[in-house]
Amino acid sequence: MTRTITLSLLICAACGAQSPAPPLRLAIAGLVHSHVDGFLHSIRDRNDVQVVAVFEPDVAIQRKYAKKYNLDESIFSTDLGAMLDHAKPQAVATFTSTYDHPMVVEACAQRHIPVMMEKPLAVSMDHARIIQRAAASSGIPVVINYETTWYRSHGAMWDLIKQQQKAGQIRKMVAMDGHQGPQEIGVPPEFFQWLTDPVKNGAGALFDFGCYGANLMTWMMDNQRPTAVTAITSRFKPRIYPRVDDEATVLVEYPTAQGIIQGSWNWPFSRKDFEVYGERGYAIAVGGNMLRVRMPGQRDEETHATLDQLPADERDPVEYLAAVARGKRKPSGLSSLENNMIVVEILSAARESAATGKTIKIANQ
Q1: What percent of the chain is predicted at pLDDT more than 70?
Q2: Is the Cβ–Cβ distance between 91 and 322 less than 8 Å?
Q3: Cβ–Cβ under 8 Å, residues 147 and 272
Q4: Burial class of 84 by CB neighbour count within 10 A (0 to 12, 13 to 18, 19+)
């Protein structure tokens, strides 16, 4: 028997009782980004989002996911436009290569369908502007999904640093993201193929993991564009990654702060850590479930901050996309197109800096 993939019940606002609502009709565009595996797993037993169609040009990959998640093969297609026209989804979740993001957004824009994609937004500013124009011309919301968006540690950090302003003005930020390497952690071959392609991924570790720090720093700096970017990239494992960098360090300069991004396929363990230092205190997020802080009044020791649950529609990408598609909220903050246009600008400048050995100045717009 084929399992219908759905997610949660909505609450009746008038009576406070649970009442079934029509599930959000969701299409998936692409299966070559292995984050799709976690996405499908997270919604397999839920009931307010229903996968009604899947686009993937590679039939062998279609069959792999159809078998793994007991999906009816009739919902699969090798033609994106035809799939969208036939299934008429209310939203699209994108798991193509980063290079193919403009293709998906333009197809969705023509049909006025909200779209979410895995980070980063694009491989270049040219691609980012194509996405921006398509979204603007059609009025569709575009959501960019980062795992780190849903971290309780980052929610608590924002409250301390930005809302309560306990640390004073931000002076330095350090982001450390990555793992041992795509091959080392055993990513699927279809993911490895484009992730190590400088055209389809934009770079190697620089784009794969540098985007997290650029996203968080842009958020903390209220979408302020930096003044300059300087980067160094390395290829420590050329036999595994002959065409792309596996190590990247980026200095992001602002008028009143510095950011240091460390994206790596050489960490001994997976990590997504973010440090913010202000004039009077600091907060260090270690993954999603720990926030170490030292603020005024704490003499010689750190404390662990209490991490509250995020609001219901900000806890994971499925809840968030459903809220956006139903018109309950607009993409903002870490998920917004505005933030991620700046992210791509930082990454593109970093790529140019690493290639030329020069600091890249960011012109005023």
Answers
A1: 94
A2: yes
A3: yes
A4: buried
Whole-angstrom Cα distance, residue 222 to residue 237?
37
- Ordered by where they begin, the domains of the chain are 10-147 (3.40.50.720), 148-361 (3.30.360.10)
Is residue 200 within 8 Å of residue 194, measured between CB atoms? yes
d(CA 195, CA 205): 9
Which residue(s) pair with 142 in the sheet?
Answer: 115
Tally Cβ neighbours within 10 Å of residue 311: 12
Give the pLDDT band (50/70/90) at residue 7: very low
Q: Please, are residues 322 and 313 in contact by the beta-carbon 8 Å criterion?
A: yes
pTM of the entire predicted model: 0.93
Residue 144 and residue 340: Cα distance in Å, rounded? 8
pLDDT band of residue 299 (cuts 50, 70, 90) is confident
DSSP code for 163: I
